[in-house]
Amino acid sequence: MKHSTFISTFISLYGDLNRSNLHRLPEIYSNDIQFVDAIHQINGLPQLTRYFEHLYENILDCKFNIHNVIESDNEASLFWTMEYSHPKIGKGKVISVDGTSHIKFNETVYYHRDYLDMGQMLYEHLPVLGSAVRLIKKRMQS
User: What is the pLDDT, as a whole number, of residue 77?
Assistant: First the structure.
């Protein structure tokens, strides 16, 4: 699938993102980035950089696989799977989370919103709470 040069750069950077290359975030994010997910609302590149620094301090590994993109003018929806492991979540096993990012950009991204299932990412893997969340999901599916 053919993407704009910017989206190709974005996908490449996210595919390689780790604690040692966070200095590359200004290549894809504007200074006034607004980043929103299920837990955070972050304004500005310095705050976003701190968010990623903190994220990578606490995890063993984190990889993004962007497998589909819908792009129109200066915005895109990216469909991805994140695989991460955390020593205190799920006994350090790799956890797979599907999600979507909606981004708006000019030369760089000024708006980024992630949509994901927090149960799949976190709640289902916590002692006590995890079994309750899985039970609720199972009952809602039947």
Answer: 98
